[in-house]
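Minutes, project check-in

Agenda point 3 was the complex the collaborators sent over. CS summarized: two entities, 638 residues total, and the question is how they sit relative to each other. Sequences were read into the notes so everyone works from the same version.
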Amino acid sequence: MAVYTDVTVEDLEPLLKDYNIGEPVSFKGIAEGVENSNFYLLTDKGAYILTLYERRVREADLPFFLGLMDHLAAKGIRCPVPVHTRSGARGIQLNGRPAAVLTFLDGLSVRRPSADHCAAAGAALAKLHEAGSDFPLWRMNALGLSAWRTLAESTKADSDNVQKNLGALIEVSLTRLEREWPATLPSGVIHADLFPDNVLFMHDAVSGLIDFYFACNDAYAYDLAVMLNAWCFEQDGTFNITKSAKLIAGYRRHRALNDVECAALPLLCAGAALRFLLTRLYDWLNPNPTALVRPKDPREFARRLRFHLAVKSPAEYGL
Amino acid sequence: MAVYTDVTVEDLEPLLKDYNIGEPVSFKGIAEGVENSNFYLLTDKGAYILTLYERRVREADLPFFLGLMDHLAAKGIRCPVPVHTRSGARGIQLNGRPAAVLTFLDGLSVRRPSADHCAAAGAALAKLHEAGSDFPLWRMNALGLSAWRTLAESTKADSDNVQKNLGALIEVSLTRLEREWPATLPSGVIHADLFPDNVLFMHDAVSGLIDFYFACNDAYAYDLAVMLNAWCFEQDGTFNITKSAKLIAGYRRHRALNDVECAALPLLCAGAALRFLLTRLYDWLNPNPTALVRPKDPREFARRLRFHLAVKSPAEYGL
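CS then shared the predicted structure for the full assembly.
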């Protein structure tokens, strides 16, 4: 939840001249998007989101993110699409930040997804993978395996202050992941952050996917592993195999998983848990004093990581 | 800008059963309202604001605030109105907080008001005073003259660390205000916080007044003095008499100012500047660690206070 950069009505006026989106009716900062500043903009033509990209989103990556949303929407995926300016640009500059106006999607994100929500969201992920398979741009996963070692080193000194033996957990799992990480898995554009906040529902059907600012090229099954971490643990920390089985089954209705992907799933899940453990731990130890957001507790992903490391077979995910 | 208390879609469901406002289409925390948590709620029947009242708004005052909005709206003032529950209540309890669902108003608040904006806002204040004159409830101004002494005492030790001689400025002006404060002025329900953020415009006409959570019974001319402080100083700190003259003239088109009110204006303006100086100073020195909001700089109101103390005649406000 964040508004890092202020935008006034006066700032909005020249911006609106660049777009053919009508006259403003309402304009409010919204508490959404940890990485960016977001504003709800209602005009006499419709509802939009104005996003200002803050330091964590590299300007050089915007053609990938914004182009991907255009590409996916053209293939029938419901996601925000960047409104083009009168001169055809997808992005602009506003108050010293790269910015974009995106279409606003109706729908509500669930906090405690049901098994049916998991099935629907798993299906949506597979459709996203299919629709993105011919997207022509390429972006490295900046938070993939090679980044984890860097994050582990920079958090090493203080990790045990956050939780007893956390440093050892990170070191043991990272060493194992570096040794066993599968070299070749079916890959393409992945969302890489499809948590429940980023899936909108209307009447229990998926009405949209949002927040593509971690999207990149990586293994499809890793994206599924991110979702198993994000959707299938209960508030008490336990893993819910019913939800996991439904999520995977939903996925497989639209994209097949091959034997190598299935076998790799426990390792990929451990990797995804480690990724969120490390980035949350880093933010926890290095809070941004200007951020209007409290860092998320890293420890829940330590618990999830321990669960995945103990998994003996993909069957434990309901596969 | 604030969301202090989290509200999930799951929390929303039982709430919506209490109201006849349709099915939710979108729900987002919004960065508005320093004192409360606010959410934009779009349903298939319309747009609403869900407000959770945080510690600074006393639950016992809600019948005054919510009743006032109902009263004003019935008299033609455009302001949010509390949607009544199926059982007729104006407020509910949600996540341990008193809460209300209010109608959402279109319009945009200006950051740098023009002289015409000032005229329109001044007229809106007078209409508010007229419409509230027969409101039957009464609420003391909890941030009136008697509260300033308490705030001055509690900030005394550290005020000079914020600005050189700030303690002396506060003491001198407070002593003078206590001595000279007018005993009887035409009084009634005032907004008490009609800053530009709390006035919505559409095509340069006032489309709504918001944020009635400082409303109370006090001198009408004091409310005007709050506005002169909030609307008529430029970003470089200078006073703009053109804007002030237009704001007062706009006010007088709908409510007359008598001679006593006119004569008291410099003192009332100094009092209003001191009120915002003191509350901002207090928040500056006692930041709420759980607030997702940076305290506002108190020093701009020190400068405004010095301006008013040097005023020799109401004519200096364009009266």
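Noted in discussion: Chain A has two domains: 9-103, 115-317.
Follow-up: revisit at the next meeting once the mutant set is ready.
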